[in-house]
## 1
Amino acid sequence: MTDKKPIDPHDVDAAFLIPYYRNLSFIIAEKIKNTSITPMQITFIAHFLGFLSGFFFYLAEYRYLVIGVIVIFLSNLLDFLDGSLARIRKERTRLGGFTDYLGDAFKWTAMFLGITLGVYKNTNDIRFLILGFLATTSYILARLAYEVYLRYFSEVADDIIKTQKAKNKIITQFFYDGQQLLPLIMIAALINKLNWLLILFGIGYLFYEGMLSLETFGVNLK
């Protein structure tokens, strides 16, 4: 019997996508639960594929963009699979969670960097280097702020975040997370408009993060 934890729409980063990845990952986890494959091995493969997708985006030719989309999809699926397998086997550990989180930060940095350098290579426009830098740093700082917030305001953070998630049905954190970024990256790559993506993330992302974070940190902590 699968130890399948019910998926709470207010307990995930993008309720409209998470259940599909999670349910598929449970199906695969059931198939491999009696093998020698470990959740940690899957975690490392997932993050390696994330780094690899950044390399394909850097190459910037359309065929490599398509490959990058496939690789990033597999990386995301494996990112769910490690947790599902750990749940089924009851092997969830703090080390596994830490490794997964840290790897995600490096993986997304590599993808943003690959996209930025690939767009710059195609356009030779230094403005895209600046936009890529803004997108990457704002994403990293937002994730860091979120973790620090959970740690140092633990007595109020859960209730405030639950309220914030209930107000935002699609973006259910006060920062864009992987499940919001992935569809945008995949669509932009498939239509060969990653330059548009950098404009969106470099300008809109920074503005949105600032406003939503101020609301969460300021208004709710008065």
## 2
Amino acid sequence: MLSYTDLKKGTLFLKDGEVFEVVDASFSRMQQRKAVLQAKIRKLATGKVFDISFQASDSFEEAEVEKRALLFLYQHRGEYVFIDPKNRSTRSSMPEDVLGDNKKWLKPNTELTVLFLDETPINIQLPIKMDFNVKEAPPGVQGDRSQGGTKSVIIETGATVQAPLFINEGDVIRVNTETGEYVERVKK
């Protein structure tokens, strides 16, 4: 059993028969009251995020989740298909709504970690930093500093990333998949 002090970022636990992941957690204490854990939790089955408070009397069962390294193959009609790199005949699919915002970072032949609960894929863990080709980038006007020297570029997956003015179409950039921020330009 987990107590409310064990709920840290990334912890998976069961609540009301559903699997939740802690997105963010912090303790708050008001004057002479007991400490309360303020947390943002994500329901893995739907991807929805909730704000919730936990008391010292709350306890939770840890979710028995299996992690497997799989390869993302393709997306077709809202289904994302993954295969086991060691046994290519083993395929798993996941609906679009379960992936949430992670789907905008998926590109074919990317190896990632898939979380399984009772042989059912429930979520994915992407590499923290990934490289993407820039498909569309407006020209960077040198005198335009109203946005702090950044512009919106569209990467190969269709996601929009704020990048410096010197990034052009065809460049390869490294993006932090947790925050969605530009990290650096990758040398070709």
